[in-house]
Specification:
By secondary structure, this protein is α+β, with helices and mostly antiparallel strands. Among the domains are: 4-190, Nucleotidyltransferase, domain 5 (2-Layer Sandwich); 569-616. It has helices spanning 69-79, 90-98, 109-115, 123-134, 141-166, 171-190, 196-217, 231-241, 257-266, 271-282, 345-354, 357-364, 368-375, 389-403, 408-415, 419-432, 434-450, 469-494, 516-534, 566-569, 573-604, 609-616; strands spanning 11-20, 28-36, 42-46, 62-66, 87-89, 192-193, 224-225, 228-229, 295-296, 335-342, 452-454, 460-462, 498-503, 506-512, 542-548. It has a 5-stranded mixed sheet with strand order 3-2-1-4-5, sandwiched between helices. Strands 13-14-10-15 form a 4-stranded antiparallel sheet. It has a two-stranded antiparallel sheet with strand order 6-9. The radius of gyration is 27 Å and the shape is globular.
Length: 620
C-alpha cells in the first residue's frame, strides 16, 4: 500500500454536498464544500453559486474523495457536471476493511471516525442539521451559514479520516469500487419506469383488495376473522389437513415466514396461505418511492451486503416487495425497456473458480442442469429438457442448493422428497464434480486458518474463524457475482446505456424504441466483457427480455395469476375461473410428470428394492 504522500495525483479533492431529495425524486443540491488536501484551498458554494462546471478538476490527474460518493455524484448529474475520472470512496473502503466484523458505531462517517479513534460531530447535532436541511428553504442568513459550516465539518472529518485510512487502502482496487459508485449514482438518477396510474389505483383500493384476497383465499382454510389470522383456527385446519407443523419451545406453532416457506414447499396446500400472509404483512405500497416523472428511485445501498451486493430498502425499491408488484414496471411512451441477466451465473463462477472440468463442460453445453443429470447417469445421452423435465428439475435444484451450502435435510424439504433421495442427489454431485468439492473444502480451510476471504478485486470478508462453513462456501460465488455485475454496470453506463437498476444478476435498461436493439447489444457486450475480466477469460452467457411501449413490462412474467396476487382479482370472472383452472391443471400435470419420471430417477441413481420399500414406508 502506498503512503498518502506518494499517491500519483497532482490534486486530491475532498468533497461533500448537502441536498434535498424527496421520495422518488432526483437530488436538488443545496450547497457544496470542497478542499484540496495538500494545499488546503477550500471552496464553499451555495446553490445559487453552483455554475455549469465543478470548481475542481475531474480529469485523471485529480482524485475525488467522498464518503458514500454516489450522493455527491448524483449532485454532479443534477447539475450537469462531468463525473470525476478517479473516485475514492472512503465508505466502500471502510466497509471492505470491516466486512464481517462488529462495527459499534455503524458504517457511516461517524462510525468510521470512531473506529479510527478520531473526533466526530455529535449525533444529536448532526440530526438537527439534517432536519434543518430537509425542512427545505427559504433559509435565513444564519441558517445558510450553519448549513455551510455543517457541510464543511464533513470535509474536516474526511481530512482526518483519509490519512488514517490511507496505508490500508489498496488504491487500484479502491478506484474500481469508486468507479462503481459513479455507476450507482447514474442508476439512482435514472430510476425504474413505473406504471404510475396503476400504482395509484392499487394504492387507492389496496384495503379493498386485501379484504377480497382474504375472502377468496380463506374460503379453503377458515383461519381469518376479519383481518386477523387466528392461531386456533389455523391449528384446527392443520389437524383436518393432516399436516404436522413445527413448534417453538413454548409448544406454540412456529408462524415465522421461514417456517411457512419451508412447509409450503413440502405441502403445496400451505402456499396460498403463506403468500397471503406475506402480502398482508410486508407490502406497503405507500412506501414505494416513485417520483413525479413516474420513476422509482431510492438509494441502492451499494456494498451493504456481506457479499458486496447492493441492499436497497425492500419497501422503497420496486424489486424489493412481492414479486407480482414488478409487473408495474412499464416503459413510458416511445420508450422500450429490457431486462438482461446472466444465465446460470453462480454455476459458471463455481465451475471456473474451481477449475472443475466436468462442471465447465456442463456449463458450456448450454444447459448445465441437464448436463449434470446426464453426467450423473440420471438422464440418457439423448435426453432433452422436454423429455426429462422432472429429472432435470431435481438436478437443477440440487446444483443450486450445493452453491448455497444446503444439506440433505434442507434439500429434501425443497424438492419434496425423502431425505434418502436428497442424500443420493448430493452424493451424485460430489462424485460428478470432485474437483469442485476439493476447491470448496480448500476455501473453508483457508478461511478458518487465516480468518479472511477475498475476491479477485479485493472485496474481503473478515472474521471467518468461527463462521458457518456453508456461508464460507457460498461467499466466493456470490461475491464474484457481485464483482461481475458491478463491472458490467460500470461498462454499460460509461458506454451511454441508461441502466435503470441492477438486480442480483441482471440489469434493467431503458432507451427510445428505435435504439433498444443497439442498447441491448452494448449491454450484453459489457456483461460478457465483465465476466471475462472477473473469470480470467471465461464468458458467462446472457439473455434479454424486451418490452416496447405501450406493451407490458418484461417483468410481467411474474405470477399474474398467483394465489395472493391482486392481478388475480382484477380479472373478469371467466378469466379468473380459467386462471384457477390453469393453476389446478398445471399442478396436476406437474405431479403426474414427477411420478412418471420417479422410476427413471431411481433406476439411474442405482436405488434398488430395499430403498423403494423404505421410501414407500415414508409419507411423501
Amino acid at each position: 500500500m502506498l503512503p498518502l504522500e506518494r499517491w500519483p495525483y497532482r490534486e486530491i479533492w475532498l468533497a461533500d454536498f448537502e441536498f434535498l431529495a424527496e421520495a422518488g425524486e432526483r437530488p436538488a443540491p443545496v450547497c457544496l464544500c470542497a478542499r484540496e488536501l495538500r494545499s488546503g484551498r477550500e471552496v464553499r458554494l451555495w446553490r445559487d453559486q453552483l455554475g455549469p462546471k465543478p470548481p475542481y478538476p475531474t480529469n485523471a490527474d485529480s482524485l475525488f474523495v467522498a464518503y458514500y460518493a454516489s450522493a455527491e455524484l448524483g449532485c454532479h448529474l443534477a447539475l450537469g457536471w462531468p463525473m470525476p475520472q478517479r473516485i475514492l470512496d472512503l465508505f466502500t473502503e471502510f466497509r471492505c476493511g470491516t466486512n464481517g466484523l462488529a462495527v459499534p458505531a455503524g458504517n457511516g462517517l461517524i462510525g468510521a471516525l470512531t473506529a479510527f479513534g478520531l473526533d466526530t460531530i455529535g449525533t444529536t447535532e448532526k440530526d438537527e442539521m439534517r432536519a434543518l436541511i430537509l425542512r427545505g428553504g427559504p433559509w435565513s442568513d444564519d441558517e445558510r451559514a450553519d448549513i455551510l459550516n455543517y457541510c464543511a465539518g464533513d470535509i474536516d472529518a474526511l481530512a482526518r479520516l483519509l490519512p488514517a485510512m490511507a496505508q490500508r487502502i489498496d488504491l487500484p482496487r479502491a478506484l474500481l469500487r469508486g468507479r462503481y459508485m459513479a455507476a450507482a449514482a447514474s442508476m439512482e438518477y435514472a430510476g425504474t419506469p413505473i406504471d404510475a396510474p396503476m400504482l395509484d389505483r392499487l394504492r387507492r383500493h389496496w384495503t379493498a383488495i386485501q379484504d377480497r384476497l382474504i375472502a377468496q383465499i380463506d374460503l379453503d382454510y377458515g383461519v381469518f376473522e376479519g383481518r386477523t389470522f387466528k392461531l386456533d383456527r389455523f391449528e384446527a385446519w392443520l389437524t383436518r389437513a393432516g399436516i404436522p407443523w413445527p413448534r417453538l419451545d413454548s409448544n406454540r406453532l412456529d408462524l415465522s415466514d421461514d417456517t411457512f416457506r419451508q412447509m409450503a414447499r413440502v405441502y403445496p396446500a400451505v402456499a396460498p396461505l403463506r403468500e397471503l400472509r406475506s402480502s398482508l404483512a410486508e407490502l406497503r405500497l405507500n412506501d414505494l418511492a416513485v417520483g413525479r416523472d413516474g420513476r422509482n428511485r431510492t438509494i441502492l445501498s451499494a456494498f451493504q451486503a456481506r457479499t458486496g451486493r447492493n441492499q436497497p430498502s425492500n419497501s422503497k425499491f420496486i424489486f424489493g416487495p412481492s414479486v407480482w408488484l414488478r409487473s408495474l414496471i412499464k416503459p413510458p411512451f416511445g420508450m422500450a425497456i429490457a431486462y438482461i441477466d446472466f444465465e446460470q451465473q453462480e454455476f459458471a463462477i463455481a465451475a471456473k473458480l474451481s477449475a472443475d472440468a466436468n462442471m465447465l463442460a456442463a456449463y458450456s453445453s448450454g444447459d448445465p442442469y441437464l448436463a449434470f443429470a446426464k453426467q450423473a447417469g440420471a438422464i440418457p445421452p439423448e435426453g432433452t429438457k422436454a423429455s426429462h423435465a422432472s429429472v432435470r428439475e431435481l438436478f437443477k435444484t440440487t446444483a443450486l442448493a450445493v452453491l448455497y451450502g444446503m444439506e440433505a435435510e434442507g434439500l429434501a424439504l425443497k424438492i419434496d422428497r425423502p431425505t434418502i433421495i436428497a442424500r443420493d442427489l448430493l452424493r451424485a454431485h460430489h462424485e460428478t464434480y470432485r474437483q469442485f468439492w476439493r476447491w470448496s473444502d480448500a476455501v473453508v480451510d483457508h478461511a478458518k486458518l487465516t480468518g479472511k476471504l477475498h475476491t479477485c478485486f479485493g472485496w474481503a470478508l473478515q472474521g471467518c474463524y468461527d463462521a458457518n462453513p456453508r456461508s464460507l462456501r457460498n461467499f466466493q460465488m456470490q461475491a464474484h457475482g457481485a464483482e461481475m455485475l458491478r463491472l458490467a454496470c460500470c461498462l454499460a453506463t460509461e458506454r451511454g446505456v441508461e441502466v435503470c437498476a441492477s438486480v442480483h444478476d441482471a440489469l434493467l435498461i431503458a432507451t427510445p424504441i428505435d435504439r433498444i436493439e443497439a442498447a441491448i447489444t452494448v449491454t450484453r457486450m459489457a456483461m460478457a466483457e465483465a465476466s471475462r475480466i472477473v473469470l480470467g477469460g471465461f464468458e458467462v452467457r446472457t439473455e434479454a427480455k424486451v418490452a416496447r411501449s405501450p406493451n407490458a413490462s418484461p417483468m410481467r412474467v411474474a405470477p399474474a395469476c398467483g394465489a395472493s396476487s391482486p392481478n388475480r382479482l382484477m380479472k373478469p370472472g371467466r378469466e379468473r375461473q380459467a386462471c384457477k383452472w390453469h393453476e389446478v391443471t398445471a399442478k396436476a400435470a406437474a405431479a403426474a410428470e414427477r411420478l412418471r419420471d420417479l422410476a427413471e430417477v431411481e433406476r439411474r441413481l442405482g436405488l434398488g428394492r430395499k430403498w423403494r420399500e423404505r421410501r414407500d414406508a415414508q409419507p411423501l
